[in-house]
């Protein structure tokens, strides 16, 4: 919205700053951060009052989690609110990619909110039916995939770009939309599975979104793409403002989610943020790089899949408990030890993902 202040500029004054994506990204970060600090405590108080017993704790979960009973959930509302406010304020609202990522984020956030509400109101961990959640998730992702393809350059439409191999494209044709569905739904549910310890999910999301924001900015500038030998996708640079909002809102949320958490993100936040990562990857044509940058989420999801399939075949378990962060809890690792080590792994994977921009 503030971008339109450039209409008041003569080219050399303060208003000219609003032309620069980097300046507006800084503004989005600060706006989201301040939003989190200002509204965090009041929101937590409202959630605690409305929810009473807070988020239900699984009976079959790690024993140490029962002390968390009574902690309110739906804290993702704080992140989503900060993200929406900062993006609408600082991004160019005539940019289609901004609306694509917002559409996915808000839609998945709504699914998560309905699931959290069902869990809290019924005081059980069932929530909304998995079939309904997946069905809506598939529909939203399909719309986003088709929408994004319409704004990709003709030579990139329905193509899969391979990292490292600069000139290699795989034409997916009609399979591009189903592929986009897998990326977005997979990212959303992977982040959802990772959100099991205080502070565990939000920092890797911030790291991944920051990395994807840098990539979006790079592929949205023709001079950068020529230097880096990556595919140019006009307009994606604005996504940096969106990811700056995630980073600022995430920091504001982490202030209250740091151990011991005063509020849980809930599906409201985890589904919204995971879907956002998938939508950014689809928009920037860096779907496979997301699997590297978000490798921690991939491992968390794979640990559940492996555990379920192996148990069905043999009646035995590969891990003491899945997702894998619970496995390490069962092995005796302290919660902060798991969280910080997983943060370190996320940072390493982000650096590797960024390196794919230059290693061609």
UniProtKB/TrEMBL annotation:
Membrane topology, as annotated: Multi-pass membrane protein
Enzyme class: transferase
Keywords: Cell cycle, Cell division, Cell membrane, Cell shape, Cell wall biogenesis/degradation, Magnesium, Membrane, Metal-binding, Peptidoglycan synthesis, Transferase, Transmembrane, Transmembrane helix
Pfam families: Glycos_transf_4, MraY_sig1
Cofactor field: Mg(2+)
Annotated Mg(2+) binding sites: 192, 267
Gene Ontology terms: cellular component: plasma membrane
GO molecular function: metal ion binding; phospho-N-acetylmuramoyl-pentapeptide-transferase activity; UDP-N-acetylmuramoyl-L-alanyl-D-glutamyl-meso-2,6-diaminopimelyl-D-alanyl-D-alanine:undecaprenyl-phosphate transferase activity
Primary location recorded for the protein, binned into one broad class: membrane
Enzyme Commission designation: 2.7.8.13
Membrane spanning residue stretches: 20-40, 74-91, 97-118, 130-149, 169-188, 200-219, 239-256, 263-282, 288-311, 338-357
Subcellular location: Cell membrane; Membrane
BP-aspect Gene Ontology terms: cell division; cell wall organization; peptidoglycan biosynthetic process; regulation of cell shape
Catalytic reaction equation(s): UDP-N-acetyl-alpha-D-muramoyl-L-alanyl-gamma-D-glutamyl-meso-2,6-diaminopimeloyl-D-alanyl-D-alanine + di-trans,octa-cis-undecaprenyl phosphate = di-trans,octa-cis-undecaprenyl diphospho-N-acetyl-alpha-D-muramoyl-L-alanyl-D-glutamyl-meso-2,6-diaminopimeloyl-D-alanyl-D-alanine + UMP
Taxonomy, superkingdom: Bacteria
Pathway annotation from the record: Cell wall biogenesis; peptidoglycan biosynthesis
Annotated function: Catalyzes the initial step of the lipid cycle reactions in the biosynthesis of the cell wall peptidoglycan: transfers peptidoglycan precursor phospho-MurNAc-pentapeptide from UDP-MurNAc-pentapeptide onto the lipid carrier undecaprenyl phosphate, yielding undecaprenyl-pyrophosphoryl-MurNAc-pentapeptide, known as lipid I.
Family the entry assigns: Belongs to the glycosyltransferase 4 family. MraY subfamily.
Name assigned to this protein: Phospho-N-acetylmuramoyl-pentapeptide-transferase
Source species: Planktotalea frisia
Gene name as annotated: mraY
